Hints:
This protein is an alpha/beta fold. The protein is 38% helix and 20% strand. It is built from 16 helices and 21 strands. The protein has helices at residues 56-75, 78-94, 96-107, 111-130, 166-179, 194-206, 221-228, 241-254, 277-287, 290-293, 311-323, 343-358, 393-396, 412-420, 435-444, 478-482, and strands at residues 25-26, 29-30, 35-41, 46-53, 146-153, 156-160, 183-187, 212-215, 232-238, 258-262, 268-271, 303-307, 362-365, 383-386, 403-409, 424-425, 427-431, 449-452, 467-468, 471-472, 485-492. It has a seven-stranded mixed β-sheet, with helices on both faces. Helix 6 links the parallel strand 7 and strand 8 (212-215). Helix 2 (78-94) runs antiparallel to helix 5, helix 3 (96-107) packs across helix 4 (111-130) and helix 4 (111-130) runs parallel beside helix 5. The chain starts with 24 loop residues before the first strand and ends with a strand. Mean pLDDT is 94; it is low at 1-14.
Amino acid sequence: MDFCRTDNDVSSPPSSVVDRPWRILAGGDPVETVATYEIENPSTGRKLADAPDASAEEVDRAVRAAALAQPAWAALTPRERAGRVRRLGALMIEHREELATLDSLDMGAPLRSTRLDVDGAVELMNIFADYALELGGRTIPVSANLHYTTSEPYGVVARIGAFNHPLFFAASKAAAPLIAGNAVILKAPDQAPLSTLRFAELAAEVLPPDVLIAISGRGGVSGRAIVAHPLIRRIGFIGSAATGRSIQKDAADAGVKHVTLELGGKNAQIVLADADLAAAAAGVVAGMNFTMSAGQSCGSTSRLLLHESVAEEVQTRVAAILDAIRVGDPIDESNDMGSLVSKAQYDKSLHYIDVGVAEGGTVLSGGGRPSTVGPEGWFVSPTLITQVAPDSTLGQQEVFGPVLAAMTFSTVSEAIEITNAVEYGLTASVYTSDLTTAHRIARDLKVGHVLINSPSRHFWGLPFGGTKSSGFGREECLEELLSYAETKTTTVMLP
């Protein structure tokens, strides 16, 4: 394909993948009047493209167009809607290299990672298509008469994505509401909107006009307009806890809306003295998502809790793995890890490294800009800081970058207490050869997903979501599909 290099020639890819007008499609046509804003290539810090900067008025036009399109879409059977979603997934596979390249250029992840995002999104879309017939109702024999339930779509729903997996979130998070019979407004991440806009163009080839519309814009104007719009009664958001709280407030101020939030994490990996230490070291590195998203993941295992008897050995093993990770241009497939998405994320990661050291931590690996890159771009080495106090800034706050904090414990109860003593509750991993102990720890951890002898990861079909400031609602499972339909109860009085 002519828009992406797949060999070891690391020169810039042909510009046709981004050098084109980027527009919002609404009302069946491109919105020509929308303003634009500049987005950058984070691996160079230079301009990449001009993206549409939608106003509140243009959001309103898009939502009203979606509302007009939704009834005919809902009139199709669930299987018919699922078939269209499968066709969209197949079209994404045809455009796999283009979509992956857009994300690599736009948010800085390596091509090997962004290709997996395309594949994972399509797989999850197909799983939701498999669930389509679960949208049925049931009869409830509460009397001698007929009582039954049916599932009905909300109408127009909004999905607001995050910058760390733009295409994956756009595609996989649109699938459940579409199959449930809703029209979908996708809000692309400010920093990396291009793959979401391209996905909407592909969707227009297989879905009826305006059933799926992607909106891009910076500064919160378009996002707030989406959340507050009276025709949108269901919102799903992925992002920071602070933004999630703002969305809750804005949604409540605008009306009664169903909001689910998948927010941040300060996830722990607990390594007991009897664990397979090599597996534990490899697991925490994999769980940190260094090579997927430079650690920019709500699921990253950013706290490494080590029994004091094995701490030194595990830390040494982890440092050796991190030292071998090659950081650089994400389009160069000899590199393992790309850049952070923006200067803001770059500065934030370096700030937390400085704070960790100032509070008594020791940098065992990484700690700043890697020597494998030049002066351009937002690159930070995968970093391990040891001797971190559990109640310190680095021990408590989410970095959302390539910074791993190691701390020690002496008893199982102490490990549980440390794990639970943060505001987040998304995932936790436990490494031990004693499964009885593992189950007891899993019972006492206040998180949404516990993994035993495995890094933090996703299994399509398993409920994913958190507690506390990590949000509420479960996704990537049947519950997600059902959450995009309302239950109606009908009673028939029989003669």
